[in-house]
Design a protein that fits this description.
Immunoglobulin-like; globular; alpha+beta; single chain; 800 residues; TIM Barrel
Length: 800
């Protein structure tokens, strides 16, 4: 199908996926040439047995279009239906279809002058706006909709499956479609809602404004939800650092992310909030993602001050509401969070929270319980209070994962939570914000942070993503309650399964690596009582030759208990965070000095008695017949402090040539260096830099960033951008190029300072004498040629 030339169409609108009178606000405007039809169900969500219907609401369609086509695709992209409609019936009645199977579908509308002419897709565009005012326009021409097999019945008493909730009640219609039974309100903004201080509950000491918070609490109460609320952000008047108010990192004001000067002010605020809502809110979380300074945009203060804040908040809550449950601020599955937890436990935090609150994906309480054991602290029950089930951000390399890949990750991670004893899962979040799948590259090229995370799109309209129907059917299939993880199995033929106990009996959740059949997995048969469903809710025959596809997960229920002992037990559900590359043998070893290397990058001083890395260099030549240049040499010295890394590289090179631009700085005289930031030896865990002295001045470029997932590190630069934090200088001096670089740990996220820890590092010095990249000197492998952190060298502190 072709795309309709905008210049030949009148003004048409977008296919809206919300009922009139119930449309969520959206800044998207119709582009010239777009088309508007309206589904007769909110958010394009129907139940099996209902008729799907889209009707035009504005009909300025070119007179030349006389025939319209509606083509329906299933979740695998396979065409399942095509309808042709004459002009007037389409304009008057739109298109309708009564599906026989539940699941996720897309419909694409097109028009043509005649039945024999190739139809032209009716376009649907949306725009997003960057911080600098630049606007990007994108197409999303297929209209996503769901046919739900059956509706879950929320278990408000158990409240095991929840959603992250802002301050708008408008999302509750979407919540009801999925079947969540618990709401986590993020947050009660003591000082500001992210950067918006106008939302502060206590903008002046003793002056409380609850008008922004009351509506969502009351709406949740009316709908029967159990709920929790989070305390977050210190008002400017209470902050110890008011001068940092205008310092904004991604989405918070730095001045508001410190503990207050007077902890009594926080205690008073907590007491007022609990007094007001204690009849409706029984659970309170103390802050969001506290971490080592620089590692989270929500906390710039120390572990000592968070411990004080936690203790004060816990005491204030219990004074007013003794039966309340208090959560520790949510912690991610990163080294920095483990170290932060270690510090607060050492300070005696264990008696000031009832629940261990986890964030991210593939997180496990075991990381934190090991630290509890060191301090003889009790293991608190664990919840996933901010589950980044399908979150994707621009720090992640490669194309945006497919909807199926994200859904598979979501389901495996949910099962992993059951395995690790997580007692509540809270989905983050219902709808995407300013970013959609199509906008990833746009934000990346602009070096602006963005994420997609919702199970509903918000642009160009509210409509479900594949994960929405998959999670909705999961809740229906387990009766909104999983009472236990039982075991896991290798089913053969590239298939695996996890057995869980649910409110409606045992369920074997099955996934595949390749196509197979029911008989291949269960050669003895399943019996007459067994039922098989795919993850979109379709009933699958249990007959032996029924094909099973790796495109779906499957639920086996109603099987006889005699089946389970016949299956092969095996550990099939493992966290990808535990994956480690096979490190190369005989790694290059060098020295990292403890302490600074220089006072200032702009200066010329070098601290005395440092150990330089003169040895273990390898030279590669690239020009045909080239030999090692006698005047090309290099050495480096590196230092590690609590603040970050100092690096000085001294390159002997008589002729300096650097006329390249990003991302090709490496073709000219330059250095490239990289750290294995998560210690895994995998490319997703490394952060890479290029430094070059160009005609326009020195440049320090971050060419790759270790994946941060849903974490929001402060003072951090995404990949393919000039480094925004730290300091650097490059100068030519007597036939030498001297690179002086100071990086804060935040730019190496998730790497943190530990004096006893070895660093995994590699360095390449590039040489161009005017005829192209002639040669390079490399310290350790893994940069030149194929990028592979498994070959990085090891830097250790000098022996004392």
């Amino acid at each position: 199908m072709s795309r309709f030339p905008l210049s030949t169409m009148g003004r048409l609108l977008i296919l809206i996926t919300c009922c009139l009178g119930a449309v969520l606000p959206c800044t998207t405007q119709a582009a010239e040439g777009d088309v508007t039809l309206l589904p007769d169900r909110y958010a394009a969500w129907w139940s099996l047995g209902e008729t799907v219907s889209f009707k035009p609401i504005l009909v300025e369609v070119p007179a030349s279009m006389t025939v319209f086509t509606a083509t329906v695709f299933d979740s695998s992209g396979k065409e399942v239906r095509r309808d042709k409609l004459a002009r007037q019936p389409f304009l008057d009645e739109g298109w309708s279809w009564k599906p026989e199977q539940p699941g996720f579908y897309e419909v694409e509308f097109a028009g043509a002058a005649t039945e024999t002419e190739s139809p032209t897709v009716l376009p649907s565009h949306f725009t997003v706006k960057l911080k600098d005012g630049k606007i990007g326009e994108f197409e999303h021409n297929r209209y996503q909709f769901v046919i739900a097999a059956r509706q879950p019945k929320p278990d408000f008493a158990r409240a095991q499956f929840g959603f992250s909730c802002g301050l708008s009640p408008k999302v509750l219609k979407l919540v009801k479609l999925i079947g969540f039974d618990f709401a986590f309100i993020q947050a009660i903004p003591w000082g500001a809602q992210f950067t918006n201080e106008k939302m502060a509950v206590e903008p002046k000491k003793g002056e409380f404004h609850w008008e922004h918070f009351d509506p969502i609490v009351e709406a949740l109460r009316k709908d029967g939800f159990s709920m929790a609320a989070q305390f977050l952000s210190t008002p400017l008047w209470a902050s110890p650092c008011p001068e940092k108010f205008d310092q904004i990192n991604i989405g918070t004001r730095e001045a508001l992310m410190y503990a207050p000067k007077d902890m009594d002010d926080f205690s008073n605020f907590v007491r007022e909030a609990v007094k007001r809502y204690k009849d409706r809110i029984k659970i309170w979380e103390i802050w969001n993602e506290p971490n080592i300074p620089g590692q989270s945009i929500f906390w710039y203060d120390t572990a000592e001050n968070y411990t004080r804040l936690l203790k004060a908040g816990y005491k204030a809550v219990k004074e007013v509401q003794p039966e309340a449950e208090v959560w520790l601020g949510g912690l991610g599955p990163r080294t920095s969070y483990f170290e932060f937890y270690n510090q607060i436990q050492k300070l005696g935090a264990s008696d000031s929270f009832d629940i261990l609150s986890l964030h991210g994906t593939w997180n496990s309480p075991e990381y934190f319980y090991a630290i509890d054991d060191v301090y003889k602290a009790p293991h608190r029950p664990a919840i996933m209070s901010e589950w980044h089930a399908i979150l994707h951000n621009i720090s992640e390399t490669g194309p945006h994962p497919s909807e199926r890949e994200l859904s598979k990750r979501m389901m495996l991670d949910q099962l992993y939570q059951f395995k690790r004893g997580v007692v509540r899962s809270i989905f983050f979040t219902l709808t995407n914000g300013n970013a959609e799948v199509e906008t990833t590259d746009f934000f990346k090229k602009a070096h602006q942070f963005s994420q997609t995370y919702g199970i509903f799109r918000s642009k160009p309209r509210i409509e479900p993503r594949l994960a929405a129907v998959i999670y909705q059917f999961f809740l229906a299939q387990v009766g909104n309650r999983v009472t236990g993880y039982i075991d896991e199995y290798d089913l053969g033929s590239g298939a695996a399964g996890v057995l869980i106990d649910t409110a409606i009996g045992k369920q074997l959740v099955i996934w595949l690596e390749k196509p197979t059949t029911v008989k291949a997995l269960f050669p003895k048969g399943l019996g007459s009582s067994a039922q098989l469903n795919d993850w979109e809710g379709r009933t699958i025959s249990t007959a032996g030759e029924t094909p099973l596809s790796p495109d779906h997960f499957y639920y086996l229920s109603g099987a006889q208990d005699a089946l389970w002992p016949s299956l092969t037990k095996a550990e099939v559900l493992t966290s990808p965070r535990n994956n480690r590359a096979n490190m190369a043998a005989n790694l290059i070893a060098g020295v990292v000095n403890l302490g600074t290397v220089f006072d200032s990058a702009a200066g010329s001083d070098i601290r005395p008695k440092l150990v330089w890395n003169d040895a273990n260099w390898n030279v590669q030549t690239f020009a045909p017949g080239a030999v090692k240049a006698p005047d090309f040499n290099s050495t480096f010295v590196i230092g590690s402090t609590e603040q970050g890394i100092d690096l000085v590289v001294d390159v002997t090179d008589a002729k300096h040539v650097q006329n390249e631009t990003s991302p090709a700085f490496g073709k000219g005289d330059s250095i490239q260096f990289s750290f294995d930031c998560d210690g895994s030896g995998r490319t997703v865990g490394s952060t890479d830099f290029i430094a070059a002295l160009t005609p326009g001045g020195p440049v320090l470029w971050k060419s790759a960033a270790a994946q941060v997932g849903g974490d929001l590190p402060a003072k951090w630069t995404p990949a393919d951008a000039p480094v925004a934090n730290g300091e650097f200088a490059i100068r030519r001096e007597n036939g030498h190029t001297i690179y002086r670089i100071r990086l804060p740990w935040s730019e190496l996220y998730p790497l943190i300072y530990k004096p006893e820890r070895q660093l995994r590092f590699a360095l390449v010095v590039n040489n161009n004498n005017g005829t192209g990249r002639e040669s390079c000197r490399e310290w350790a492998g893994g940069i030149e040629g194929q990028r592979n952190p498994a070959f990085y060298g090891v830097l250790r502190a000098p022996s004392r």
